[in-house]
Amino acid sequence: MNGLGIPALQDGKIMARISSKIILLTAILGLAACDTGADPQTDPMIDTKTKRAGDKAVAQVNGTSIYQSDLERAAAAQGLIAEGVPLLSTDAAYKTVLEELIDQRLLALDAMSQSLDQTPETKRRLQAARERLLGNIRIEDHLKTQVNETTIRKMYEAQVKLAERGQERRARHILLRDKNAALDVFEALQGGANFTELAREKSIDSGTANKAGDLGYFSRDMLDTAFTSAVFKADIGDRIAPFKTEYGWHVTEVMDARTPPKASFEEMRPQIVNFMTFDAIQSLLKDLRESGEVTLLEPSPPNPAATEQETSQQDTSEQDTSEQDTSDE
Asked: What is residue 53's predicted lDDT score, i.e. its pLDDT?
């Protein structure tokens, strides 16, 4: 936080929180690469009969096929290619991803040969994976209508209008604790002292002291109103006599004025997409919670006997370990 109470990188932190949720969603969506469209409760895990029209088989593994689309979904889930981009056999990632899918298929087939797919635990986990996958497909479908080129462009235009805050000023300042110190610095500057050196030596604003007191460009609503009021009343090149804000006493120079540049669509697009994706997902979940029936049930109380047994087993284990250590000595 600088000497005018501006939280550093405030917008960046907000975007970081949004981005973390988008990253989590993307990771979960990666489960789609493993989908066969089968119901794990009733259908075989791996379909060995259905042919995929227009989809080329790239490998045969014990009578089952791995298709080009499987390869491309897996590569996209790992971030090796963009969604919808073909993975060519000449690409560096082609062989690596294909080998991974072959290993995955061999392990799955071996598990099925041992009837591991029929155990209650496996069925529960497959059902949970299917549930997550269906949820993510619902989100993907929702985002197609909520986050597209038309809606992104509308959001950009709205943001540009909000950003039109009038002229900006650029100023530098030296922040001091009391009026007498500020008057001394002001008189020194009037006598020809170097602003950069005084800012470094005297300013208590740690955020700007080593930058010649430079605050960069700001509009009237971006900094403390008492500060911006004084700066916007002055002309370019003016040195403003010491004045007080809640942060201390300021000796300030107005360096420049400009009309703020408009960020291009390409510059803002990634942040807009992240924000709109997060907002669309939150809105969908909110609507589903409001229309659905959700009842939180009381968790089962702990079993005192089981807890006591676990504690006893732990104590016995620690005692055995202690005795073994003594024996080793």
From this structure: 79
Q: What is the DSSP string of 303-317?
A: -HHHHHHHHHHHHHH
- Pairwise CA distance, residues 254 & 169, whole Å: 7
Q: Where are the alpha helices (DSSP H) in 215-255?
A: 225-233
Residue 23 has pLDDT above 80, yes or no: no
How far is residue 76's CA from residue 29's CA, in Å, rounded to a whole number? 10
Separation between Cα atoms, residue 244 and residue 181, nearest integer Å = 12
C-alpha 235/C-alpha 246 separation (Å) is 24
Separation CA 259–CA 262 (nearest Å): 9
Where would I find the H helices in the chain?
Answer: 10-29, 68-77, 92-113, 120-146, 149-162, 179-190, 195-202, 225-233, 265-291, 304-328
CATH architecture classification, 165-258: Roll (3.10)
pTM above threshold 0.70 = no
**Residues with Cβ within 8 Å of residue 227, at least 6 apart in sequence:** 4, 173, 245, 250, 252
Residue 54: pLDDT band (50, 70, 90) is confident
Nearest-CA neighbor of 172 among 17, 44, 15, 4? Answer: 4
Tell me the domain boundaries of the chain: 29-135, 165-258
Beta-bridge partner residues of 65: 60
